[in-house]
Design brief:
about 130 residues, 2,3-Dihydroxybiphenyl 1,2-Dioxygenase, domain 1, four-stranded mixed beta sheet, 2 helices, 8 strands
């Protein structure tokens, strides 16, 4: 039997690397990392998102590569109400929220927005 400890990284396939990097660094406070010469990742906490440019992916890759098909939830340290105010101040549309949801460890309050590829991004606080 295999026992999973945690998620280390995930991969997003994106249409425009610069727009994606800007969104995740400016809006969500992640850090850009360049590794193995030209690979790009977005770091947060002890995890990261590796970026693949659509049509120029690294092997191996997902079976059906497509930009905009992800639905990601991030637990944030910032109060959800302050996060909503900040996102709105940037002119970014809130898709939904603040709403009650259930996270991996219990009840959360969430708001939803979209990244440049239209991936659904959920930002949440545990209650």
């Amino acid at each position: 039997m295999i026992t999973i400890n945690r998620l280390d990284h995930l991969v997003l396939t994106v249409k425009d690397l610069d727009k994606t990097i800007d969104f995740y660094t400016r809006v969500l406070g992640m850090e850009k990392e360049i590794f193995k010469g030209s690979r790009i990742a977005l770091k947060y906490g002890n995890q990261k998102i590796n970026l693949h440019e659509l049509g120029n992916e690294f092997e191996p890759k997902a079976y059906k590569v497509q930009a905009g098909s992800a639905d990601l939830c991030f637990i944030i340290n910032t109060d959800i109400n302050k996060a909503k105010t900040y996102i709105e101040s940037l002119g970014i549309k809130i898709e939904e929220g603040i709403v009650a949801r259930t996270g991996a460890m219990g009840e959360i309050e969430s708001l939803y927005l979209r990244d440049p590829d239209m991936n659904l991004i959920e930002l949440s606080n545990y209650k």
